[in-house]
Amino acid sequence: MSITVLGVNHRTAPLEVRERFAHERREVPGSLERVLAAGARGGVLLSTCNRTEFYIAEPDEAVPDAVWAILSERLGGDRSASEYGYVQRDRDAVRHLYRVSAGLDAMILGESQIQGQVRDAWETSKAQAGPVLHRLFQSALLVGARVRSETGLATGAASAPSAAVTVAARIFTQLAGRSALILGAGDMAELAATCLVSEGVRVTLVANRTYERARAIAEQLGARALTLDEAWEHFADADIVLSSTAAPHAVVTWDHVAPAVARRGGRPLCILDLGLPRDVEPAVAQLENVFLYNIDDLQAVAAQAAAERRRDIPAAERIVSEEVERFWAWYGGLVVVPVLKEFRERLDRVRAAELERTLRHLAHLSPEDRGAIEYLSHTLLNKFLHQPTIALKEAAQAGRGYGLLEALKRLFGLERRDDP
Amino acid sequence: MVLVPHLIALGLYALATALALAPFAGLRPAPRALTLGVPLLGLAAHVVGEGLFRASAVGVFTGPLATGLVGLALLIGLAPEAPPPSARGAWSILHITVSVFGLAMLALAFIAAALYLLQFRELKAKRFGPVFRLFPPLERLDQLNHLSLVLGFPTVTLGVLLGFGVQYAGGASVDAAQVVWGMLTWVVLGWAVGVRVVRHWAGRRAAFASIASFTAVLLVYVALKLAAPGTQRFL
Q1: So what's the architecture of A3-153 in CATH?
Q2: What element of type H or E holds A42?
Q3: Which one, A2, A393, B5, B115, has the greatest CB density within 10 A?
Q4: Residue A281 zone, left/alpha/beta (φ > 0; ψ -120 to 50; rest)
């Protein structure tokens, strides 16, 4: 019995490779069925933009090849997915999943989105997971929650888009209901807008140099599209301006926005300039009640949060280690029970056969005497089995049961593999 | 943590009361008079403000201020005088209580304004240190300042009117300087509230106005004390 994880992540494969491995929800059961058909008792597929990992319970030797074959087909050509992959077994596999769930293995340390992705993977794979992986994923979610509640690993904003939310939250009493104006159609602005929208901010206007592109994004966000020249007057009423144009020079200038800002009546305006090169002229920051932050400023906020998070890595790793041992003790116990049962049954069959043979030669004995001999055989068997049983259970609890189990199987010819 | 200085302040106030130093006992006014209002308002700022404004950082300032004022009162007032007859009537008690609460609210407005300016400076300078992380959002400090001013000024006004009641009820005699300077201070306070409510000042300008008006209260108090030490007066 064992648990294995095979997969790729952001450290072992570039984005263009990870994109090919990523599975949509509807594709998961098919891939898992292929893995189970290759010889495994259970499987869960965790597929996000940063990782694609197969968690397998009791894989036969053919299973790794089956997994790499599934991924290689997606890669195309004659390249093998195993070039980008890794394999972890048993305790290391459990530790790997716990670290993933806790955000310790994430691209952005401590990011919490992975917790939901682990839950989704578990739910999508429920039909194929089997009892061990059910328990493993359930405990992984608890480990993630424990790390986040007992350490500071998830505190602060560790990315520039989430730092934008942190900065805006230092200016406004609450972000819910605030209006945002987006200038340009850069990816970073879209990401930051998503973070703000998740806090309840309403994107009301999207302005771009080309109106058609603005309209496409505006439709996605339920906003109104404008050209850039139409946007300046809206600096009078927007609370947050997110800018990420592809312009080679500053497009938001003092001359454009000062008249509109003057009409704000002392209300603060937060401008988040995510463009590179910068979209907003630095002089705009001199306007009263205008708070301007560029990508470097936001990254400074993110770096501060990331540094604080890194301080909590040892505490998070301690929790992960504790939980790995706890799971392994449960899993070890699970493995020991069927082997012990078979061991006892085997010896009891020997006892019963020998007793019957002996009693056949002692037909003159009274029923009471025969009963006494049978009682003696039971007692002797129990006495002989007591110490090995205790030792095996204790070793399993301590996570050291495998060596003893293997010895037991070999010495007594117990080759049957029971379900946990 | 924020509650601790408030509780210390209240403990010291209880001690002051036991020593007959509390403002009700002798009408030997501020800073002992303020010591009742500030810790109580600090607690209110913490309990109510935490719910309404999530501005517990304000308590970080009101707590030590209250504790300091009570400590100061204990230090300078360890030899209490006999309470004057003017302090014994219902008018006097009402006058002092209302005035104390009004001034404490103005003190809270002052603190909120000071925090606002600090946070404003840090946000403008893009410094993401402890002030950025621990202080309430800028807008919340502005709201707290607004509310404290709007509630504090009418309360102080009522306290002043009750002061006239004390005088006409045959209580303390008030000299002309006290009346003139007191009214001048009231006008300055009224200006700070007026520009917020009528002219809709907000943000930094409103914070400066609030600070200026409370500073005027303090300066007039100190000036009157220096000009005529020992005089029975609240303001």
Answers
A1: 2-Layer Sandwich (3.30)
A2: strand A42-47
A3: B115
A4: beta
DSSP strands (E only) in A91-201: 179-183
Domains in chain A: boundaries:
3-153, 160-303, 337-412
Domain A160-303: homologous superfamily in CATH: NAD(P)-binding Rossmann-like Domain (3.40.50.720)
CB of A211 less than 8 A from some CB of B: no
Flag whether B235 is in a domain: no
B-proximal residues of A, 300-339, CB under 8 Å: 300-301, 304
Amino acid letter for position B184? L
Pairing mode of beta strands A42-47, A3-9: unpaired
Pairing of the two strands A3-9 and A51-57: antiparallel
Secondary structure (DSSP) of A76-97: -TT--GGGG-EEEEHHHHHHHH
Q: Per residue in A270-295, pLDDT tens?
A: 999 988 788 999 999 999 999 999 98
| Extended strands (E) in A281-411 | 290-294
Counting the structural domains of chain B, the total is 1
Q: What is the mean pLDDT of each run of 10 residues along chain B (235 residues)?
A: 59 57 44 53 54 56 65 57 59 84 90 94 90 88 94 92 79 73 89 92 92 90 73 49
Q: Is the pLDDT of residue A191 over 80?
A: no
Residue B80 lies in a domain: yes
Residue found under tokens 């009117």: B161
Backbone angles phi, psi at A52, to 5 degrees: -130, 115
Token code pair at residue B166: 């004390």
DSSP B219-234: HHHHHHHHHSTT----
- Residue ranges in A228-294 assigned as alpha helix (H): 228-231, 254-262
Question: For A328-342, what is the mean pLDDT?
Answer: 81
Chain A partners of B202 at a C-beta cutoff of 8 Å? Answer: 265-267
Instruction: For residue B12, give its domain range.
Output: 3-227
Please indicate, yes or no, if residue B232 is contained in any of the structural domains. Answer: no
State ipTM. Answer: 0.72
In the A/B pair of chains, how many CB contacts fall below 8 A? 47
Which of A285, A289, A301 minimises the CB distance to B128?
A301
pLDDT at A67: 94
CA B20 – CA A345 distance, rounded (Å) = 88
Task: Tell which wins on pLDDT, A355 or A304.
Answer: A355
Average pLDDT over chain A, rounded to whole? 88
Q: What torsion do the CA atoms of A247, A250, A253, A256 make, to the nearest 10 degrees?
A: -10
B93 belongs to a structural domain: yes
